[in-house]
Specification:
Layout lengths: L11 E3 L5 H14 L2 E9 L7 E9 L9 H10 L8 E2 L4 E6 L4 H17 L16
Parallel strand pairs: 1-2
Antiparallel strand pairs: 2-3, 3-5, 4-5
């Protein structure tokens, strides 16, 4: 079991809530650290409810390959409640997935686990606790 990788950038940014400078810093540091970076977009659920869905998008920084073990990542995302039909992990190093509920602290936890898996090929043994993650 590896220790968690400390990143000098925010791994997950929320669309509409960050500046271009923040995004540039995220990408620059992800390239330096050979780590993925993510953003999430919160959108109204098109099924006519008052709920909101979250579209997660991730990318392996330029020139650093693809997501490790796409089928293991896909299984993990489905286990965490993502819509199976929405999950796409491309050979170009991109990840797309939609979660049917708006819950930013949970998404921060998901990204934390994905970053660790990409770095070490193992899932970080950390349970989700709402108070551990930002709600922004």
């Amino acid at each position: 079991m590896h220790n968690e990788q400390a990143l000098p950038y925010t791994a997950l940014l929320v669309e509409g809530r960050f500046t271009p400078e923040t995004r540039e810093h995220q990408i620059r540091e992800a390239i330096k650290n050979q780590s993925p970076f993510f953003s999430v977009e919160i959108v109204p659920d098109k099924r006519g409810t008052n709920q909101k869905m979250m579209h997660l998008q991730g990318e392996v920084a330029m020139g650093n390959g693809v997501f490790r073990e796409p089928e293991a990542i896909r299984a993990f995302l489905i286990e965490q409640g993502f819509i199976p039909e929405s999950i796409s992990i491309t050979k170009g190093g991109n990840l797309y997935a939609t979660h049917p509920r708006e819950h930013l602290p949970y998404m921060h936890w998901i990204v934390r686990l994905l970053v660790h898996f990409q770095a070490f090929g193992e899932w970080l043994a950390v349970k989700y606790w709402y108070g551990d993650y930002p709600d922004k």
